[in-house]
User: Fold these one by one.
Assistant:
Number 1:
Amino acid sequence: MPSSCKDIRAALAECLQSSDCVLVQRNKPSDCMREPLVDTLPTRCLQLKKGYGECRRGMLDMRKRFRGNQPIAVSKELEGEKGGQLYGGKPAVGDIMGKTDGREDEREE
């Protein structure tokens, strides 16, 4: 299996192994993923199941095959790092330029 889905697959397997469906009710993880028992899974496992399905679907999607699936890691902005791309109205220069209030012409006179 390509490495793009390995992380989410491992997280899903760990979530299933620690769920009540496997630990308490003694069902197989594959049985817990199917319809009668899927309602007993925690929300995190259901989210991981949906994400894993989208990751697998992205491997077959011709629009995504060139660039590959997006990584599952947390984005750099949430970790506090500033990216180099400009988007969403961010200024190109940042804090280098001084702030203005729009009345520079009045001050010069």
Number 2:
Amino acid sequence: MAGIRGLNGWRWIFIIEGLITVVAAIVAKFFIADWPHEAKFLTSQEKDLLCRRLNEDLGEAKMDHWNAKSARRTWRDWKVYIGTLMYFGVVITGYSTSFFTPTILQELGWMAQHAQVMSIPIYIAATIVALIVAIATDSLKHRYSFTMLGVLVATVGYILLLAQHSLNVGVRYFAVYLVTCGGYITQPVTIAWVANNMAGHYKRSVSSAVQIGLGNLGGIVASNIYLSSQAPAYPIGYGVSIACLWLCGLSCTAFLGGLWLENRKRDTGKRNDRFQLPPEELENLGDDHPNFRFSY
């Protein structure tokens, strides 16, 4: 398509990929329901079953009213900020691959258009890995180990890229697969893990917005660490990326430790004083409710 409408072939690749995304989003608007009872593709019995399961999942830990007390509980919750660091650390890897992947592919002798097309298998592989991990982490009802698995896989990829002067291009291409797949393992799990441990409609909404909104500032970091003057070695880019990746790993470990300690306090009755709160406040505590238990 190079030359059509006066545009280069690589521009048409971006246009086509972008149009597919836009069209899919418009179509999805009419199929994705905001709430179970609004899902037109479910029968009445299925809607009731899903609503019942959601209520059973939260139990007494609800936050259906946004007021001064629930706002303070939300903004003072350490999990919101550790969760943001988790996401910030790994999202840099997600953005980074778009910067160094074309350079490595062009070193294989491919022109810009060919290099762009050959990046597709990398993301197909990462998508498959992400889906497998999604099924596994839900089946096992466990998150932490999967976040660290992704960190380790991507770390191996970064180490190979940092040592690329002694490696052939094929190995560097394989390293891109490791980095991308590692990021695709960890990034979605951090979002799900934080959401799992935020009970109540309002608190979960605010925490997810903060985590993703502030966490995506990692894109600013990623866009400034891959200096064209350092291509294709990118020592600063790879070094900062691996450091931030382990910021994610350490934050996930701190998150795990904090959840475990809080569960122990609740198991030993150290949060039972909250049962003495007024009924309207007790029923709006979210995950601060003493009967709520955090998942790992």
Number 3:
Amino acid sequence: MVKPLTFKGDKKAKKRKRDDGASARPNPAGSGDPAGGAIDDNDDDDDSWVTAEAPTDVAGPIIFTLPSEPATCLACDSHGQVYASPLENMIEGDAATAEPHDVRQVWVATRIAGQEGLTFKGHHGRYLTGDKFGIVTATREAISPEETFLCIPVPDTPGSFAVQTQRDTFFTLAERAPSSAAAAAAKSAPAEIRADATEIGFASSWRIRMQARFKPRLKANKEEKAREKISRKQLEEVVGRRLADNEVKRLKRARREGDYHEAVLDVRVKGKHDKFASC
């Protein structure tokens, strides 16, 4: 289920508590979590932002932090004009900790099925594109090769990526070329976003920040921790008898390793054999 984007400082809606005593009823072994354990839905509410470390991490809401001073990120307005937007939510001015404060700074990354290519959709529902002249906009409503990109890790800068177009050019932060009359005023003007860099350099090394709940490694760690969370009482309810310490350890280990149901069956069969042996 897709949830609305939230920003730091937003008030979270309070969840209504049930008064029918449903929470007091034990969870039957055949419903919800097959092991009878409680299901923790809080992992899906993790709205913290982390840095993408590999191309496979890039998914869901993201921001592109640009190599500029002061720190900026890629943004677009409602007309699809792309520009460098100043970043405000950072820890001690470190762009590696940046979070968006404006929905115009957020892009939704989606991987094309069966390919390495990614698309980036803006807040207005249109896609980021770089045309053959190197002009970057976000006005396309449909996906074509011009709206498909690769995120290439930058070897010399861990945690940074070069966004490559289908023409083998790269997105870059280009200084504007002002006229002599406007040179003084243009010094403070934001740099231009282009898609015509022919090689990876400092200006084309961008950092990608993403919501933690979409990062595959963090999701895998949370799933592993969720599998480990089961009490002795819950195991005994699943097996149907009291368990010895070694049986509890075996079932918990099997729950982590993925062969939990087979281990439960073995413990049940062993319990029946022990029962007949004692008669």
Number 4:
Amino acid sequence: MGQQPNLYAFRDIDNLAKSLRTYVLRCQNAGFDRHGVFKVAVSGGSLPNTLAKALLAQSDDSAGDTVDFSRWKVFFADERAVPLDHEDSNYMLLKEELLDKIPENMGKPKVHPIDTQYMDDVQEMADQYQNALMGSFAAKDSVKLPIFDLLLLGCGPDGHTCSLFPNHELLRESDSWVAAIEDSPKPPPKRITLTLPVVTHGIKIAFVATGKGKRDILRQILDTDEGRSLPCGLVNDGGAERVSWFTDHDAVEGVGFPRRGSL
């Protein structure tokens, strides 16, 4: 067995957000050093709110604590086949929680939403989103997989992440970068999602999971063999030490997996 993921637990979300800021900015600056931009994929749920708390906080003005959104390329780890102003849209959630609140002096990121003209054909929507990735990460025939600088993910109460659900056939998809799903067990049923190989090949992968409602599933993912077959567990296995979990004490009470003291 290779190296394990990193588990960080914080007293509350405010303290979590401070460390998440440090972590994201390290990833940002490493991306800038690598290729002049920061390529990041984000999920929905409670993540955009926590991300806003982290990234819009007052900077100490040092180079290591400065967010430069003008060099961010933001993609969605998954998205629902709904209009961009729909309450189920991950784009809308990120826009309301973070994008609309970014001060001018921090720059504006390049954001890649879905093309909503394909809402009636989610496979075509997935293909078009894959084309958008190719435009940023080079053609599919020249690189096996797009490699994000960072993927910021959530964890569902069933252990799903992105729109990759337990025991779903999409967990075995290995050719596509982006896949369509028309039978999501969680509404809305029609979605697109990054595939598991894309997620696990990120340079850094971070889960944010907070609250008592996550306690049982985190115990399963982190402490049991069965949990390793859940989507989040598969990301842990594939990403190993490149994966970091940002949690609060409520979410990991009773979890035996060893915690790290600091970043």
